[in-house]
């Protein structure tokens, strides 16, 4: 009889492990608390990055036996980089910098693509079930705590496809906002890396900014969002259980690009169970150095306001002029290097807090930072109008998938 494997969570990390194990004949059961894969998200666009490795991620996926043609993706080689003083420049690469995918329960979403792969391989997925984590071999249940949150609005638009990335400490405290438009549907999202009251005012003000600077003809559909959990555990296998994806702290502290880590760690866990590698060692040698570099960058970003963001944006463009490719900057940012290695102990003690969590693991966690006095400002009249417009749409049935209370 084939060995039974229980996986907690039918998201990207859990389903990639499920696919590999089921294709090798394991009796795989995935237990998901929500009604479907992707239900944690609601049609938001996310980018799968191509800068933490020199190998294109879709090539890597195919080598592992995962088929990226199972879901819709749109490659980008150029972005609008919006500096804090509203200057817009264009990092550009010859290859693919990232691919935009949709998260959710529609057929073309990445979550549904991974679900189809797992089912085709023979895994059984049990939706709307609760399973005791101690009865599972792989924990893939996504984030638990909040170290940062993101709020977005999805809308119809006439604007052509674009990705814009804005470094702005006022509209997105400690972080960035973005605009993604794919085939007539847009998402404007602001990320808050300092905890705020009345978070919707940041989204309203961000939307107002994009409306003034892009011809959007925006017709709102719904509001979405989510949280990110940034913590580095002492061990990735605990009491015989493999912790993968965000449940295992495998998340990018700098920008929150966690999908590649989630899929990769699911694959590593499956291969380890099959005896092909040692999960703990592989995470420590391949993913942890990148995560540490991202944590160091986050530590530095937490210390700079808009003046620092402007320096980063300028440095990015100068780096591109020197190297002839904008993606090289993003690759450089994740390289451990002597400087980053030297300041790691300061980052560990200055930014991360030791915490024992309910399942017995000890993690070094980045707490949700407190608001600063500069985070309080009067909204513009355009932002107030956008807030009123959204209230009207909500009264007419416009959905909201994530609120301040979810944090
Ligand atoms: C607003 C937002 C924007 C983001 N943008 C990007 C981006 O552009 N690029 C990028 O790479 N990453 C992005 N991320 C991060 C990315 O979404 C995550 O890092 C990634 O989905 C983590 O995968 P996972 O498998 O760990 O978790 P998930 O894909 O979230 O899967 C976890 C699953 O476990 C289920 N679950 C939870 N608790 C239980 C339980 N007790 N029992 C059973 N099941 C449970 C959940 O319902 C979910 O289906 C973003 C995140 C947010 C919130």
For CATH, the homologous superfamily of the largest domain is named as NAD(P)-binding Rossmann-like Domain
Under the CATH scheme, the architecture of the largest domain is 3-Layer(aba) Sandwich
Radius of gyration over all CA atoms, rounded: 21 Å
| Structural class designation | alpha/beta
Please report the distance between the alpha carbons of the first and last residues: 43 Å
* Element order: H for helix, E for strand: EHEEHEEEEHEEEEEEHEEEEHHHHHEEH
Q: What is the count of DSSP helices, taking H or I runs of 4+ residues?
A: 10
Counting DSSP E segments of at least 2 residues, the number of strands comes to 19
Largest sheet: 7 strands, mixed
* Helical percentage: 25-40%
The ligands bound in this entry are: flavin-adenine dinucleotide
CATH topology of the largest domain: Rossmann fold
Mean pLDDT: 94
Strands of the biggest beta sheet: in what spatial order? 6-5-11-12-13-10-14
- The dominant shape is globular
Uncertain runs are: none
Q: What's the CATH class of the largest domain, please?
A: Alpha Beta
Beta-strand content bin: 15-25%
How many domain units? 3
């Amino acid at each position: 009889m084939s060995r039974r494997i229980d996986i907690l969570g039918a998201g990207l990390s859990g389903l990639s492990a499920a696919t590999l194990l089921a294709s090798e004949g394991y009796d795989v059961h995935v237990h998901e608390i929500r009604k479907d894969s992707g239900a944690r998200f609601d049609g938001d666009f996310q980018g799968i990055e191509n800068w933490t490795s020199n190998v294109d991620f879709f090539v890597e996926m195919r080598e592992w036996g995962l088929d990226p043609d199972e879901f819709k993706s749109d490659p980008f080689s150029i972005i609008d980089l919006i500096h804090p003083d509203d200057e817009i420049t264009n990092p550009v690469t010859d290859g693919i910098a990232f691919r935009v995918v949709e998260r959710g329960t529609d057929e073309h979403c990445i979550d549904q693509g991974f679900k189809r792969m797992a089912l085709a391989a023979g895994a059984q997925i049990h939706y709307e079930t609760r399973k005791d984590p101690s009865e599972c071999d792989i924990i893939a249940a996504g984030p638990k705590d909040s170290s940062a949150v993101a709020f977005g609005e999805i809308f119809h638009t006439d604007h052509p496809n674009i990705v814009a990335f804005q470094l702005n400490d006022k509209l997105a405290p400690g972080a960035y906002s973005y605009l993604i438009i794919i085939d007539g549907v847009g998402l404007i999202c602001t990320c808050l890396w300092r905890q705020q009251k009345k978070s919707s005012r940041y989204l309203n003000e961000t939307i107002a900014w994009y409306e003034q600077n892009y011809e959007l003809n925006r017709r709102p559909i719904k509001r979405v969002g989510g949280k990110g959990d940034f913590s580095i555990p002492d061990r990735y296998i605990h009491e015989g259980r493999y912790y993968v994806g965000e449940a295992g702290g495998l998340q990018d502290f700098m920008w929150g690009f966690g999908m590649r880590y989630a899929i990769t760690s699911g694959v590593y866990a499956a291969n380890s169970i099959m005896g092909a590698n040692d999960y703990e060692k592989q995470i420590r040698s391949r993913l942890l150095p990148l995560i540490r570099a991202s944590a160091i960058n986050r530590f530095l970003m937490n210390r700079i306001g808009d003046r620092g963001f402007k320096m980063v944006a300028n440095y990015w463009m100068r780096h591109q002029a020197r190297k002839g490719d904008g993606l090289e900057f993003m690759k450089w940012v994740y390289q451990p290097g002597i400087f980053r290695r030297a300041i790691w102990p300061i980052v560990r003690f200055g930014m991360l807090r030791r915490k024992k969590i309910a399942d017995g693991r000890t993690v070094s966690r980045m707490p949700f930072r407190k608001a600063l006095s500069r985070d309080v400002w009067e909204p513009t009249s355009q932002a107030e109008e956008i807030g009123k417009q959204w209230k009207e749409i909500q009264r007419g049935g416009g959905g909201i998938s994530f609120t301040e209370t979810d944090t």
